[in-house]
Amino acid sequence: MSKPVVLITGASSGIGEATARHLAQQGSLDLVLVARNQQKLDQLAQELSSEHAVDVVVHPFDLTQVDAISECLQVALQHFGRLDVVLHVAGAADFKAALDFTPQEVEREFQLNTLSGIRLSQVAAQQMLQQGGGKIIIVASMSGKLPTPQSSVYAASKSAMMTYAAVLGMELEDSGVQVTVVNPGPVKTAFFDHSPAMQTYIQNVERFALEAHQVAKLLAELVWQTKKLPYEVNLPFAMRLAYLGHRMCPRLARWLTLRFANFK
């Protein structure tokens, strides 16, 4: 059997880069790394190839160009002839009042956080159906389950991605193509360098924020898992509990969020 081919978006930094490193260390796979920054991708590919003898192909690409996302799939097929796993990690956010977003800002966040994932999942699933199986793993966010003030557009875009992935997973239930969504809480990465408000937020939640390598370890485990994937993974534990509380007592959860969890 040929080595599995894993495509990772957002691979030049943060969770995507950490996941590429984690998978390369485990070896016996081929990687397709997608992000906008070619220099960072080339550097990472050279490092992984030399240190772990992993075959790595890079594809510099702006995922907001949704109509051209099939190019990512074609890169994998041209080099390796197949695509076994998609790890859609790329995402972006801005934290500010809902009324302050311009239409262009809203559109860009939805292009990257939602529409790119939808389109990538479509083309990947079509290929995987021809192959007889595969995995589509979407990194969304606990923000889509536990929205807080100043995160309106980001939370909405991630919630939409979760819903789409859930339906896609149901439609592909018996096909051999598995779909799962991983919802991390805040993760200490350059993701929060976008603005002073986001930097302040990650400092305020540092005590329960995750490290990129923690999420990467989980994603790598899902890639290699032989039994059926879970439909959804929520982390960390404290935010899983908060989500359960939100579902059981939404009015109380709303009050607590505004009173004690508005870290922005």
Description:
This protein is of the alpha/beta class. It has helices at residues 14-26, 38-52, 70-80, 103-131, 152-171, 196-204, 212-224, 237-248, 250-260, and strands spanning 5-9, 30-35, 55-60, 85-88, 134-139, 177-184, 187-188, 210-211, 232-235. The strands form 2 sheets. Strands 3-2-1-4-5-6-9 form a 7-stranded parallel beta sheet, sandwiched between helices. Helix 1 (14-26) packs parallel to helix 2 and helix 4 packs parallel to helix 5. The model has no long low-confidence stretch (mean pLDDT 91).
Helix content estimate? 40-55%
End-to-end separation in angstroms reads 50 Å
Number of strands: 9
Given the C-alpha coordinates, what overall shape results? globular
- What percent strand? 15-25%
The average pLDDT value, as a whole number, equals: 91
What is the radius of gyration? 18 Å
What letter string, H or E per element, gives the SSE order?
EHEHEHEHEHEEHEHEHH
> What is the spatial order of strands in the main beta sheet?
3-2-1-4-5-6-9
Low confidence ranges: none
Q: Specify the number of helices.
A: 9
Draw up the topology in text.
Blueprint: E1 5-9, H1 14-26, E2 30-35, H2 38-52, E3 55-60, H3 70-80, E4 85-88, H4 103-131, E5 134-139, H5 152-171, E6 177-184, E7 187-188, H6 196-204, E8 210-211, H7 212-224, E9 232-235, H8 237-248, H9 250-260
Parallel strand pairs: 1-2, 1-4, 2-3, 4-5, 5-6, 6-9, 7-8
Helix pairs in contact: 1-2, 1-7, 4-5, 8-9
